[in-house]
TrEMBL record:
Keywords: Oxidoreductase. This is Oxidoreductase. GO terms for molecular function: oxidoreductase activity. It comes from Inquilinus limosus. The lineage of its organism: Bacteria, Pseudomonadati, Pseudomonadota, Alphaproteobacteria, Rhodospirillales. Residues 19-108 form the Pyrroline-5-carboxylate reductase catalytic N-terminal domain. Coiled coil: none annotated. It holds the Pfam family F420_oxidored. Gene3D superfamilies: NAD(P)-binding Rossmann-like Domain (3.40.50.720).
Amino acid sequence: MNPVGGHRPLRKTILMTRTIGIIGSGLVGKAVAHLAIAAGYDVVISNSRGPDTISALVQELGPLARAGTVDDVIAAGDIVTLSVPLASFERLPADKFAGKVVLDQTNYYPGMGGFHRTDLDKGELTSSELLQRHLRGAKLVKGLHNLSWIHMESNARPKGDAARTTLPIAGDDAAAKGAVTSFLETIGYHVVDAGSLADSWRIEPGTPIYFWRYAPVVPEGVSGDEAKEIYQQRGEPVSPAEARTLIDEAVRPSPIGGTLEGMPQVHVDLFLEQASADTVRR
């Protein structure tokens, strides 16, 4: 299924052979890859186990995709997405990212993967500022992080569609934000600028624009397969004006960071089901 509402992908010539590098081949990375390829981008994707372990995924994605090492992805990508847990950031080869536009999809969930930082807990810096410090020469932009892998494809819509929703970004480099905005608009979203990386707390877990505005409401009393079917549909669209209001009215969460306790059971069930199926296919 085409993620942008059944419309044809944009012609490849329009995109001038732009390449999206994706670090992470899990549920999030796969969703980004599907959206990018549907829009006509070339994709190079990697994981921590090596290119040979994602040959089935590359076959599924088609001729615009290829597997590579993390270094391959960084070298090839005009935009490089971090579609991996924040806990793994210190394993990223910082020196390789110099000059690269990096799309930060990570989120801070204290304790997840054994990862916990007092400076993040105290709000001394945002998780994206932490990543920018590690990836010193990169041009990092926070974005495509505030909706789940389930809803990335279902919410994407072509320009002019009344159901097209809005995603926020944040970053310190204007040109990098422009590149990421163009990418997100091409794969199916309106975009609003939430400010600098220091401002990115306004679009982190626990804020009004994070997660819930992009998920549909599952009626009470619905369970099992019907609940899963409903939950995988798009949420109500967020207009650029509404997104701006949600960002501007955000109050810094306390405690800082996300938690799994508030996730609906259907989300957890789908994660376990799809993550397990993905593991079996590898």
